[in-house]
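Quick one, probably user error.
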């Protein structure tokens, strides 16, 4: 079985019943034959970070014709597209650079959640800082 590790902020945001997608809930339900384990892992600065390990049968990966890394990346893209993860957290989960993740989203026609209002606010900030 393949193991997947998710950042704890994603877990806190989206693993509460009623918020998570049906797919995430279905693969994390122990009665469905899948298991979740909480694992503490050290992070930068010696702090401990809580991660979740999800076991997915190899048959699922084989049927999907995906590697564990591809499955993790697809989950990251899906959660970003649904607005459940920020760009930074989704990129981190996907294990990609900012540029590579932007290219991946662009190739799939997924916007980076930056609209005209955000642009106008950034423009006003730059003007106030004297950078424009």
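Nope, works fine. Designed sequence:
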């Amino acid at each position: 079985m393949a193991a997947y590790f998710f950042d704890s902020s994603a877990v806190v945001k989206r693993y509460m019943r009623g918020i998570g997608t049906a797919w995430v809930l279905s693969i994390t339900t122990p009665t469905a034959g899948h298991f979740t384990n909480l694992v503490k892992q050290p992070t930068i600065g010696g702090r401990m970070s809580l991660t979740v390990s999800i076991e997915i049968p190899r048959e699922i990966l084989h049927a999907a014709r995906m590697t564990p890394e591809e499955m993790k990346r697809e989950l990251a893209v899906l959660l970003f597209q649904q607005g459940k993860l920020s760009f930074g957290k989704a990129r981190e989960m996907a294990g990609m650079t900012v540029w590579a993740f932007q290219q991946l989203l662009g190739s799939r026609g997924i916007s980076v959640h930056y609209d005209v209002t955000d642009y106008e606010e950034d423009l006003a900030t730059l003007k106030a800082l004297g950078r424009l």
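The chain is about 50% helix and 15% strand.
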